[in-house]
Design a protein that fits this description.
69 residues; mainly alpha; 434 Repressor (Amino-terminal Domain); 2 strands
Length: 69
């Protein structure tokens, strides 16, 4: 099993741009981009909470568990 990020989809659904979200949650554009593209191995709960607060969503909307192929 693997964990994948759906941040890109959630942002698109809400019409939020990366640069705006990064500023509102206190991340660099590069760090938020890494989260968005799934190039991370971990995420702090505080960061996940800030993203959920700004996007009005739950952690399960951003992170999903998918079976291996």
């Amino acid at each position: 099993m693997a964990i994948e990020t759906r941040l890109d989809e959630v942002m698109a659904e809400r019409g939020v741009k990366l640069i705006d979200l990064a500023e509102r949650v206190g991340l660099t554009n590069a760090n938020l981009s890494h989260i968005k593209t799934g190039k991370i191995r971990a995420i702090r709960f505080a960061t996940l909470d800030a993203l959920c607060e700004e996007l009005d969503c739950q952690p399960g909307d951003i992170l999903v568990r998918v079976p291996d192929d």
